[in-house]
Amino acid sequence: MVLRPxxxxxARAGSAILPVWIAIAERQKSCAExxxxxxxxxxxxxxxxxxxxxxxxxxxxxxxxVARAIALHxxxxxxFPQESNPQTPPRLCTNGKPIAFVEFGPEEFLQAWAASIxxxxxxxxxxxxxxxxxxxxxxxxxxxxxxxLDSNGRQLITAFLHREDERQHRLHAxxxxxxxxLDALLEVLKFCDLLSLYLCSGARGEAEFPxxxxxxxxxxxxxxxxxLYRLTPSPFQKNGDLRVVSLGVSARFFPAPxxxxxxxxxxxxx
Length: 270
Prior knowledge:
Layout: E1 2-5, E2 18-19, H1 20-29, E3 35-38, H2 40-52, H3 64-71, H4 81-84, H5 106-121, H6 125-145, H7 151-172, H8 179-201, E4 207-208, E5 219-223, E6 228-232, E7 245-254, E8 262-269
Parallel strand pairs: 2-4, 6-8
Antiparallel strand pairs: 1-3, 3-7, 4-5, 5-6, 7-8
């Protein structure tokens, strides 16, 4: 579950440009009187819609199948009722805050990761490879970071990494993409994943992405007057023409009233 706490996140004048992941993580840890909750599959679908809007010649080209693969990269989370059924109450921390996606343990997130890769593999080999590599990078990060991991958790992640290494070797045999193309598409997946999480979490402060999709990193800022997100450089612009992309994601409110309140959160990007 991706959390969008109700309190505002307006950047102060002269405030530092944050790494985008820090801006996202701060929102996931925030306690508030209420939250909009976005399921992992819906967040992933927004990621794919963002990838499908790439038009700039400065950015990697994204084929329709790859955009579809990115849209399914968190589809495995639908195995959990809280992620697939808006009527199912979210799991809560001891302080009453809904548990965010960053707070699940390996017993659960590894199941979701593997199921997601299984689903994506059926779309195209390139998609299966980049989504597998994406989760392997996250797995290695968890092992290196080590926070909250016991010996069983480390063993589970290590076994997952071994299985995915075998999967990637198998998929390479039927994949027409070159190693360089796969590297570029992996960066697109990671960028769109972070961009979707930034939007879903309700972050507003200026932030920078770590991926180098062009000659310089992408930065994002928000214009409150227009409620518009600006990316510099932008994958959504071509030939200097201003193009505004309008997308949305389904969200439900917590704590829910008698009938679950579901809405679509809209985003304008250029």
